[in-house]
Specification:
Pfam families: Epimerase. The chain is an alpha/beta fold. The protein has one domain: Rossmann fold (3-Layer(aba) Sandwich). Helix content is 47%, strand content 14%. The protein contains 14 helices and 15 strands. The strands form 5 sheets. It has a 7-stranded parallel beta sheet, sandwiched between helices. Strands 7-10 form a two-stranded parallel ribbon. Strands 8-15 form a two-stranded parallel sheet. Strand 11 and strand 12 form a beta hairpin. Helix 13 crosses helix 14. It binds the ligand O=C(O)[C@H]1O[C@H](OP(=O)(O)OP(=O)(O)OC[C@H]2O[C@@H](n3ccc(=O)[nH]c3=O)[C@H](O)[C@@H]2O)[C@H](O)[C@@H](O)[C@H]1O. The site of the ligand O=C(O)[C@H]1O[C@H](OP(=O)(O)OP(=O)(O)OC[C@H]2O[C@@H](n3ccc(=O)[nH]c3=O)[C@H](O)[C@@H]2O)[C@H](O)[C@@H](O)[C@H]1O has 18 residues, from strand 8.
Amino acid sequence: MPSLAGEEFFLPSMPGKFKDKSHTLHRQFHRCFASTSTMFLWALFLVVLTASYLSFQSFVDSSSKYLSSAWGGIQWEKQVRASAHIHRQNGFSVLVTGAAGFVGAHVSLALKKRGDGIVGLDNFNNYYDPTLKKARQSLLNSHNIFIVEGDVNDERMLAKLFDIVAFTHVMHLAAQAGVRYAMENPNSYVHSNIAGLVTLLEACKNANPQPAIVWASSSSVYGLNEKVPFSESDRTDQPASLYAATKKAGEEITHTYNHIYGLSITGLRFFTVYGPWGRPDMAYFSFTRNILQGKPVTVYRGKNRVNLARDFTYIDDIVKGCVASLDTAKKSTGSGGKKRSPAQYRIFNLGNKSPVTVPMMVGILEKHLKKRAKKSIVEMPGNGDVPYTHANISSAQTELGYKPTTDLQTGLKKFVRWQDLCLFSVNSLCLGYSLYLLSFLYRPA
Ligand SMILES: O=C(O)[C@H]1O[C@H](OP(=O)(O)OP(=O)(O)OC[C@H]2O[C@@H](n3ccc(=O)[nH]c3=O)[C@H](O)[C@@H]2O)[C@H](O)[C@@H](O)[C@H]1O
């Protein structure tokens, strides 16, 4: 029996056919190195081998750097293209900035569902817990929407995106939100709402074709106005917060780009938008959390003990207004940095036409949560708040067919139901995983 390890195992069964070449090879090797010219050839071969190895290494290094950056690379471009793919006749390809944000996520889904191509953009900053933004991202991913991780101030990245996709529209929702936080971090408002806006407009102006732009302004531009309801033609020159001032500046800046470069612009003044997947920094959201945890809620009150009021607007109504704005937006008229003819410039209030006081909002939450709130009523601090907001929406009604249908009772009920699902999964699982799970369980209609 031949041993497996033994040399004989490898010998052919028919002697004579197999020639043991080891001696011959040995001889050839010696003969080869014995000649100087072949030695020179071997040396040359080794030098070439080493050089190719080194250049291959540097290629691998540089391409892995390229691939591991937040944007760029073949795979990234593929994802962008696939996400921008249009699935309906005469559909749009829309760049949605702030796509992992509250309004951005909802608008992206609505557009994708009807067959438009969407590319999201978000910097996932930590103004509030980015876990919620990541959960919204999972929700969008499950609908084949890719969110580019990047900042609107990154002009190279924006140029690259416009290079890859001929966007027909830009839905610009990325912003530093929050009225009171502006006193803590004023520069973040300048960074996102002014510098970021200009960088984005530059990219849109340079793009060929130029996209039509719809962007989020704010009800806060009405500032300390006393005339109600607020109409688009009312004065907007007395902002009460830096947030409001940067949104007002945005309206002036977009007007300039419309005037000089022919960009088609629609600015939407949102009125205190709320609903499922909302922003945890907003009062209705933080009050819900506090009521459930038995903690007090601080209710601000205006001068002469007057209750503050807001024209709370439900997210689904806002989404309809955004989509209608895209649908009615005319094309930009510029190219190569020059305007060919005047372009469309519009501003609309997107509100609910029916302000509700903050104590009434707390009352509705108490009813839906089946729990009393511990209210601490304090004078409104001078931190940028305005006493009330109330939208005149006749322009949006006429030109966009905008018609809000959800009152605060109904809207907060839907929010509380979503919050219940959140809490249920958070209590049973870890926060990140449960929000991720929630993105599959709770999908907006
Ligand atoms: O329409 C907008 O343009 C803005 O809407 C939203 O701002 P606001 O209307 O101020 O919403 P929000 O903070 O929920 O306070 C609601 C009410 O609760 C009162 N409020 C607030 C906090 C608190 O602790 N106590 C309190 O009484 C408070 O005084 C107010 O009366 C967006 O956040 C903002 O990004 C912007 O989009």
